Amino acid sequence: MSNPRRALASAPAPAGSKLPNDLSAIAADSSVPVARLSPHVQVVHGETRVDNYHWLRSRSDPDVLAYLEAENRYADAAMRHTIELQELLYQEMKGRIQETDLSVPERRDQYVYYYRIEAGGQYPVFCRRKLIDAAQEEVLLDQNVLAAAHGYFRLGAIEVSPDHRLLAYTVDTSGSEEFILYVKDLEARHLLEERITPVSDRPAWGTDSQTLFYCQLDGAHRPHRLFRHLVGTAETEDVLVYIEPDPSFYMEISRTRSGEYLLLDLSSHTTSEVWFTPATQPNEPFRLIQAREPGIEYTVTHHAKSFFLTTNDGAPNFRLVQAPVDRPSREHWSPVLPYRPDVKLDSTDAFRRHLVVYEREAGLRQVRIIEFASGSEHLIPFPEPVYTIRPHGNPDFDSTTLRFTYTSLVTPSSVIDYEMEQHTWTVRKQTQVRGGYDAELYRSERLQATAPDGALVPISLVYRLPLVPGTPRPLLLSGYGAYGLSYDPAFSSNALSLLDRGLVLAIAHVRGGEELGRAWYEGGRRLEKRSTFTDFIACAEHLIGTGYTSPDRLVINGGSAGGLLIGAVTNLRPELFCAALAEVPFVDVINTMLDASLPLTVIEYDEWGNPGDPEAYDYIRSYSPYDNVEAKDYPHLLITAGLNDPRVA
């Protein structure tokens, strides 16, 4: 979620300051906002639902805006006793950031591309140089200049044309994720006439560097139409290439790393379908690889005369198969890596001489390198027991070097160049922590909590040494647990302000994520969703029971679908937590999922279930935070929202 947010509810003091025993003094103030009651009656499956706050969904209603401003003023009042601490923390965190910075350049043909951050600048400046001595820097896009005229600014994507003469980029200036597509002439250094909107964030070029594909959004912010645009022509002349009629499917257009094909990916949360066409012949019709089937997913990587498909067809944790480009359907698939129940295959990247396979085993990512010529393979060794790696774009298809970012809870993000033939790696850059950072002062651990059904739930945590056993510390426990997204541990210089004040930071790797494979995801969605919440509670109880913290020192945090987690567990076990931070939380699950006109609702049926089905309705009703608030003691709450947020309205 990228929208700017303001506080909308009563708030705890930040970790490190003294929490008031209650907010009764503030609550006695006449400035406390009270939302008016306006009953909205709805009968669903025989149940009469009375929603007194249904009117708050209208973000353009002056009464709604006035109420939100009142909540903001109340939040400011509730946080007033922390103003000095907030400023101190802000200056500490800002002081650790390298204000002037330069990314590791990436080679693309005769250029190297990179970004730099200048002191005082809020956004990166994208640049390039030619691969010749004393080549002058070219500034391609200065986001600081673009953002100056807007209260909100987000760059979606930048795509340089294959001939390096044009730059396509997308911008969102409202927070609605409705992007505008621009094209810049890099030689003449001016914008062309293109202003295409509303589109998704990422376009794709044909090899001719004149044909540009983009995905248009529908009223629910869903990319549903693929258009082909010829640079310099009017938008009205754009050719409609494909319409996705199923409201539960998204579309995305991309170009393979080989540069030879354009891929149209169509996917819901659990089903996918891919079409392709030669990038050298962008006017040719797209061809289907394998028709969609409910519950079957696959992604595609191109190499030479083959497609490599990572698919769950007959393999819940996915397997790797190869198909000829001219006959890519299932009957022509041949196995590359056999199905291994304990290893989850995530994706692949193809280079001219190597295939890179990204896997996950025992909750940790690993990277397998396969050499095409010999068939030999090996795993990249990593130096810590708990870590995270993130692949880079690796635009040079001919390279034998794989670039990725390596990090852990105690190791700052490091850009690694791994030589696939020599099996060696080089640290090209490690994020600097201004003021100094000594990793030896901190320790990272991986624990396991036992869920009510016996499942072992991983916990990643970090703290500053020494840790006195049995002496509870303040602890911030975070979680997500949805969409099969894994919450991997990574370094944050901001976290040092908490760690150095004695806090322990922990991540609960609950079901609904995919840390332990596809079954871990399936065990935390639809009619198994409550496992996400009971896993999180089990992690909190384990951290309390083993002496890391205590209920009066335990703060919890989650955003978006992770905010649903926070809302659910505070309803279920409010006495377990001192305070809770819910960032743009998805808490009104029943009302949202009953309204198919809202962005994402139909798409989300695969994740939460369709409450039009009585069984799904009853199950969602049992945990939906908004529907289960009771008159009882709750932890201190800080809740944030974004007015134009299309994901959590």
Summary of the model, kept short:
It contains 11 helices and 40 strands. The chain is α+β, with helices and mostly antiparallel strands. The strands form 9 sheets. It has an 8-stranded mixed beta sheet. Strands 4, 5, 6, 7 and 8 form a 5-stranded antiparallel beta sheet that branches. Strands 9, 10, 11, 12 and 13 form a 5-stranded antiparallel beta sheet that branches.
Q: For the largest beta sheet, what order do the strands appear in spatially?
A: 1-40-39-38-36-37-35-34
**Distance between the amino and carboxyl termini:** 12 Å
Give the radius of gyration: 26 Å
Biggest β-sheet strands, sense, barrel: 8 strands, mixed
How many H/I helices? Answer: 11
Number of strand segments: 40
Which runs of at least 5 residues are low in confidence (pLDDT < 50)? 1-28
* Secondary structure category: alpha+beta
Strand content: 25-35%
Mean pLDDT: 93
Question: What oligomeric assembly is this protein in?
Answer: single chain
Task: Work out the helicity level.
Answer: 10-25%
The global form is: globular
Give the SSE layout:
Elements: E1 6-7, H1 24-27, E2 40-44, E3 47-51, H2 62-78, H3 83-96, E4 101-102, E5 106-108, E6 111-117, E7 125-130, E8 138-142, H4 143-147, E9 154-160, E10 166-172, E11 179-185, E12 190-191, E13 196-199, E14 204-205, E15 211-217, E16 223-230, E17 239-243, E18 250-255, E19 261-267, E20 272-278, E21 287-288, E22 298-303, E23 306-311, E24 319-324, E25 334-337, E26 343-350, E27 354-361, E28 364-371, E29 377-379, E30 388-391, E31 401-407, E32 414-419, E33 424-430, E34 442-450, E35 456-464, E36 475-479, H5 496-499, E37 504-508, H6 518-522, H7 530-545, E38 554-559, H8 561-572, E39 579-583, H9 589-594, H10 605-608, H11 614-623, E40 636-641
Parallel strand pairs: 36-37, 36-38, 38-39, 39-40
Antiparallel strand pairs: 1-40, 2-3, 4-6, 5-6, 6-7, 7-8, 9-10, 10-11, 11-12, 11-13, 14-15, 15-16, 16-17, 18-19, 19-20, 20-21, 22-23, 23-24, 24-25, 26-27, 27-28, 28-29, 30-31, 31-32, 32-33, 34-35, 35-37
